[in-house]
Design goal:
Elements (H helix, E strand, L loop, with lengths): L1 H38 L2 H39 L2 H30 L10 H22 L3 H24 L5 H22 L1 H5 L6 H39 L2 H39 L3 H34 L11 H17 L1 H5 L7 H21 L2 H32 L1
Helix pairs in contact: 1-5, 1-9, 2-3, 2-4, 2-8, 2-9, 3-4, 3-8, 4-5, 4-6, 5-6, 8-9, 8-13, 8-14, 9-10, 9-11, 10-11, 11-14, 13-14
Length: about 425
């Protein structure tokens, strides 16, 4: 009885820390979005948004894929007693990838920057991207180890410091895209040092394990990650192509209009997904390792709760869109009507993405190639005429809604088919 009480208490503590962590991220992103949207010119905010899309591309290709592999294999490696070897392999992979991206940046810098007026070079974005990606990976490792407090402290520090840097740059009349990315990168680098020190015992033993075993684990992680690496650019296209199409055919100020509304629309679904994914997947993966099919039973009620919260979010967006953009994002009040429409695809995408966790648990992510590739491909194919021939904001919104629903339907089909095959 005492054990059960302690077990429940630990789960409640983890849930509260995770909720608080994701609330800090949600609030931090909202405040930063509001300050930059209001203090930067529309053109400047558009350039910042394009810079963020470059960061998202780098993180998806292939760092996010490796994070998913770490999520899934941690409980397996921990049970086998080879987690430190895995940590070696992960560190080596990231070091090699960072070098590759630095070399790519040297080659393409002169070609990319003319596409984004207002950004002198790509190096500030690269610096921010690599430091922030490594920070996120370290926090992902802490999360799978269920060290929830480290995530909370780290994210609270990072978002408070980012807000303070933006305020400082604004007061000094230095609120420039280049300074913002350099500043954000330095904060991420500082936080990396904190996370490494907080788990010093694990990281001090790096590179003391068998090279052969490190290579074997690295290969295993890459094999698991390969489908995610393949569909990464397509997921990026589905989420980011609209802002680039608007930039190509129109200008950065219209990019800012779309991004401001879309960013607010995605805050709630992303926050809900972040809480459920961060809290539940380490627990569910371990249960699935112990008993096949456990994740399916638990996900049935988790998905119901997920859907209910997202419906409440839609109602909130519908009722509060005018208020939010009249008093918080005043520059973009004319686009407030788009908020509930952009919320819908964001909610369905996150809902479907969480549902796919049962395929991750069964190490069957190849099945997810089709639902992740097709919507991204369609986002480009149908997005070009939609954005070009319609009003750019309407065209981008129609593209987002269409591909969001296609993603949800394809993902639902693949998950149900996989369940049927598993039962058979």
């Amino acid at each position: 009885m005492k054990f059960n009480s302690l077990f429940k208490k630990l789960y409640v503590q983890e849930a509260l820390l995770t909720l608080l962590d994701k609330f800090v991220i949600l609030l931090g992103n909202f405040v930063i979005l509001q300050i930059l949207a209001e203090r930067l010119s529309k053109s400047g905010f558009g350039v910042f948004s394009l810079g963020i899309s470059i960061f998202v591309f780098i993180s998806m290709f292939p760092f996010t894929a490796i994070d998913h592999a770490v999520n899934r294999y941690y409980s397996i490696y921990q049970k086998k007693g080879i987690w430190l070897c895995a940590l070696n392999a992960i560190t080596f992979l990231f070091f090699i990838l960072a070098i590759i991206y630095c070399l790519i940046a040297l080659i393409i810098n002169g070609y990319v920057t003319p596409l984004i007026s207002g950004l002198e070079n790509i190096y500030p974005i690269l610096f921010f991207s690599l430091t922030e990606i490594y920070r996120i990976t370290l926090l992902n490792i802490e999360n799978v180890q269920r060290n929830r407090a480290i995530n909370l402290i780290s994210n609270a520090f990072v978002y408070v410091m980012r807000i303070l840097i933006i305020i400082y740059l604004f007061k000094e009349n230095l609120l420039d895209i280049t300074f913002i990315f350099w500043g954000f990168g330095l904060i991420s680098l500082t936080n990396i040092g904190f996370v490494l020190l907080s788990n010093f015992k694990d990281y001090v033993g790096l590179f003391k394990n068998s090279i052969k075993e490190n290579l074997r684990i690295g290969k295993e992680l890459l094999v698991f990650s390969l489908p995610i690496i393949i569909w990464g650019p397509f997921i990026w296209a589905q989420n980011m192509i609209n802002r680039w199409l608007i930039d190509i055919y129109y200008e950065e100020s219209i990019v800012a209009e779309f991004v401001a509304v879309n960013a607010v629309a995605t805050l709630i679904p992303t926050a809900v997904f972040g809480v459920v994914w961060a809290l539940m997947t380490p627990i569910l993966y371990k249960k699935e390792d112990d008993k096949s099919g456990a994740i399916l039973e638990l996900n049935r009620w988790i998905n119901s709760g997920f859907g209910f919260i997202l419906i409440i979010g839609f109602v909130a967006c519908w009722l509060l869109s005018e208020f939010v953009f009249s008093y918080v994002f005043t520059k973009y009040s004319g686009s407030a009507w788009l908020l509930p429409y952009l919320y819908v695809p964001a909610a369905f995408i996150q809902w479907a993405a969480y549902s796919s966790s049962e395929l991750y648990a069964r190490l069957n992510i190849r099945s997810l190639l089709m639902p992740n590739i097709i919507p991204g491909l369609l986002a480009i194919i149908i997005g070009i005429p939609l954005v070009y021939f319609l009003d750019p904001l309407i065209g981008a919104t129609v593209n987002a809604i269409s591909t969001g629903f296609i993603y949800f339907l394809l993902m639902t089909y693949v998950i149900r088919r996989n369940r049927e095959n598993t039962i058979c």
